[in-house]
Please model this.
Amino acid sequence: MSSGEPPGADGAAGTTRPRRALLLGALLVLAVVAAGAWLILPRGTPATDERVVALPDRPAPPPPAPPPSSAAPALPPAAPAASPPAAGPRADGVASFFPASLGTLDGFGSARFDMTEQEVRAAIDRDFPPAASGRRRVGQIDQETDRVFLTRALLASVRDVLPGTGPAHVEYVLGYQRQRLIQVNVIWGAFATPPTPRADTQALSAQLQDFVARAYGPNLRTTLAQPDGSVVDFVGRDRQGRLVELASSLQSPQRYWVRISYVQDPLTGDVYRLPRGAF
Model:
């Protein structure tokens, strides 16, 4: 090493030569790789070609679908809302004359509890007009006084209170003091005018037992034998104390009957009672 060469110049020069060789080698490798890639590509095809070329055994992909319209598609017209079933006769033939539930024990047919005599008569004419066929009244409206309770009843002989059930006897009971409707009894059997055939009365009793169980509650069914041989088949009361009762007597061939009753107040109704201290 000459005295004019700066110290450490040999070491620096020795270190620089390998780096230069390494750099030259890397450049040479990159040149070879670039040349090889250029030779592989077909002539006239740029390296960055993005065209889609259909292959012979594969169909070309379909064009992209147009973007959806911003407008909402038209909806089909809405179906009309179902209307509630109209009130009327039940499908099983029990007419709407009979209260449909314990919450509607307010009378029978057009007659309502607390109606006056004239209002009850008008209701009977509406429900049982003197017609030639169908549900109708036969004869005039009679009346009768109960000797025990001193109530008065308007009596009507009717046909087909229920479809195909024949004659029945309907009693509209007016109270002792206020003379307003407090009870309705509908009776089929030997006491109707003319009498309902016994076989028809027995069949109707079974139909009514099914009706009251479904309309007023199966848990209210009962079988209470009475001293006269009749049977109370059903008793139901609403929250106001109004009562529906189904009773029958079908053993006797001469005195058979079935009765359904609607009572406004069976406990303290408007009937005559002996005053305390009368004796």
